[in-house]
Amino acid sequence: MDNLSVYFLLSDDGFEMSFSPVNDNTLDVYIEFMSIFGELEESNLNISPAQVATVSLKNNLWAFIDKYKDKVPVLNKLKSKIDSVENDSYFLILPNKPEDTQKILDLELYLQALSSTDDSSKVQNLFFQKRDEFNSHFEDLLKEYNLVNIRNDRRTYIGERTKSKRVCRFCKKSENDGATFKKVAHAISEGLGNKNIILYEECDACNEYFGANIEPTLVENLDIARVFFGVKGKGGVPSINKYKDSKLFQNDKGSVIQAPKIDVVSEKEITVTLVSHKKYVPINIYKALCKIALSVVDQKEIAYLEDTISWMKSCTPGANVPKVAVSLDRGSIATFPSITLYVRKTENYNHPHIVGEFKAAGFIYIFIVPYSRKDKCSFVKEEEFDSFWRFFPQYSASSDWRFDDYNNSNEIELTEKLRFVQNDKDQA
Ligand SMILES: [Zn+2]
Predict the structure, then answer these.
(1) Tell me, what's the pLDDT at 96?
(2) Distances (CA, A) of 100 to 103, 148, 221, 249, 373
C-alpha cells in the first residue's frame, strides 16, 4: 500500500486527507479510521462509497478525532467539514480525489440523486436522468476539458506552503536563487475585491512587477463598474478622479457621477461622456487576465506556458492575441471576483489549451491563454476563433457578447460613454 488517503465528497465541498508517513503505525490508524465507515471482514474493509451522516457515525468519528487529533492535525479540519454536513444526509467516501472533472461531476450528480429521494430503488434512474440532462449541454466540452474552479468564498491557498520549498511560477526562482516571498501575493488583484485566493508561488519581485505594470490596467478598466456595484478594493469602494472635470463616487444614497458632458436623449434616457486624463495600454488588460489564469492553473501546466510568461513580462509590442469576449454578468453580482479555467486534456489542437472565465464587478471575460506550447494555432484567425467559440455553448448560445481586440501596446486615451435608461418600475 503506497497511499493511505481518503476523499470525502460533500454536497458543496470536497476534502482529501492522507495519513503520512506511510508505515505500520499509520496503517493501523488508517484501518481504525476506515472501520468507522464500514465493516472489517477478515482482512478486507467493506466500505460503501455512499455514507449517511447519522448521529452515531458522527459520534464515532468525534471519538476517533479526539484520540488522534494531536498526532494527525488534519483531523481537526475533517471535523469541521463533517460537522457542517446535516444529520442524516448523504456524503461520499472515495479512496482518492478523482482527477477528471467529468468523474467528479458524475459523483456530484450521484450524491444529488441519493439526497433527493428516500426510495433507494429510484436512485439509479434519477442519477441517469440528471446525467443525461447535464450531458446534453456539456458532454462534448467535458470530453475535451477539465474544469478548474477556484473557491472564492473562503480562503484558498495555491501552491507550496513552506517558503524554503517554494519556486516562483513566473521566474522559476526559489529562496536559494535569491527570491523572497515576504509579501502575500493575491491570485486576483485585491483592487478587484479579492481577499480569498492567495498564491504562494509568486515571488516578491514578480508580485511587484505585475502589481506595477499589468494589474492596474484591468482594475482601472473596471473602475466605473466598481463604483456602481460597490465593489470594495483595498481602500473601500473607489472614488474616481481620473476623468477630466468629473468625479464618480458612492455616498449614502448610492452612486454619484459629476461630469461636464451630460446629454439628455429623451425623457427617460441620458448619456454621460467621460474622458480620462489617464491613458491606458490595451494589451495589459489581456496580460492581467492571463496573470490570473496562470496564478490558479495546476503547476504541471506551467511548463507549457513559458512563452506566455515571457510575453506577459516583456514590453515589446507586436503581440498577436485573440479577441476577448466581454459581457455583462446577468447572474447575481458576486461580492468577490471569480476565475474558472478550462484545461484541455486531449490532443485536439482545434481547441485552445487553456480558456479562462473571469468575473468581476458585474462583467464576464472569456479569454484564451495565448502562446501555450500545447496549442498549434493562435485562434487569431476568424475561423479558428469561431470554431473555439462554438465549442463553448454555455457562452456562445447568448448573443450578448462584445468581442474586444486588445492588440495595442500603445498608450491610448480612454473615453467612456455611459447610457442611463430609466426603468418604468422605479419612477422615484
Ligand atoms: Zn518570480
Answers:
(1) 87
(2) 5, 10, 35, 45, 22
